[in-house]
What does this fold into?
Amino acid sequence: INAEYGGQEANRMEAGSAGAAVTVTAAAPLDESAVQRAAGCIRAQGLCHLVQSLDPAIPARFLDKFASSFATLDQRMEDANIDRHQVFKFNEVCSRKFGRHDVQFGLDCPEFQELEGAFREAMGPLFSELLGDQWVLNQKGVIVNQPGSECQAWHRDGPHLYDQMLPPHAFTVFVPLVGFTAENGPTEFLPGTHEYQSKVDGTDVQVEPLTTVLPVLGDITLFDFRTLHRGAANTGTAIRPAVYFVAAKPWYTDPGNAFPTAHSLFADSPGQGAVPKKKKVNKRLQALKGALLLKLLMGGGKGASGEDDKPQEDATTSMEGVMAYRRDSLTCGV
It folds into this structure.
């Protein structure tokens, strides 16, 4: 397992690659001082890296179990001829960019229950401080970043709920199953961007400094749903799995990242799962229809006299007029 999954050795960045202070050392369960330091960090920066907040043996035990489950899942995708370069969505696994799998398969085991229980105990006081005593875990799974994966685009896990800055309503939390390194596809953050509104022109991602946190077993990284981040490409040779949880206000849901419930990878001929099949386009027929429409708009064909009508060079039959007409037709839904 250590050979395939990269072992536990990694260098932790105590303050991020560009100096943003995001690290808090806190043993579980977090005392009041650690809770306040962590809460202040995440309110200011939109993320926080908690050092050695779990017993490292607990995620290590789950990794032993998960390795076998993921091998089964990986072989099934191979046998079912899943196109991993295209989007796929199954009950057990969904694609999150090429080479990055969001896995639900294999979580129904005592080792994961132990990990979740330890996580709740360790993080409960902090989530109560940030979200209130009625906080819930509404999503959980394992993100597997495989060698050769692609770098994600900068994104938020969720937008602002209103056109004003409000307290956080949800957090994504990573519990590494192996140490993150610069090569195995760590997560990169833009601290402070939880306070930014999403910009269509992308100017909100032109923010410095970038921060990369490299946690090891026993660490926990959490960030505001609104914080800009991306998963880096895995340029190494080992798989990099990490458990994730979403802690949120009890009324908040995230249907955009929900898994399907009626598309099992283990069904006969599963295709790409809950992904609409693309309709095949008959390019020859499409070209013929286009040519016929152009001829009609240009005034071609036989007129009442039996002779070919000549196109008139006015606003409706000139080539410029035709193109304008077609643009207007498309705009109007014709």
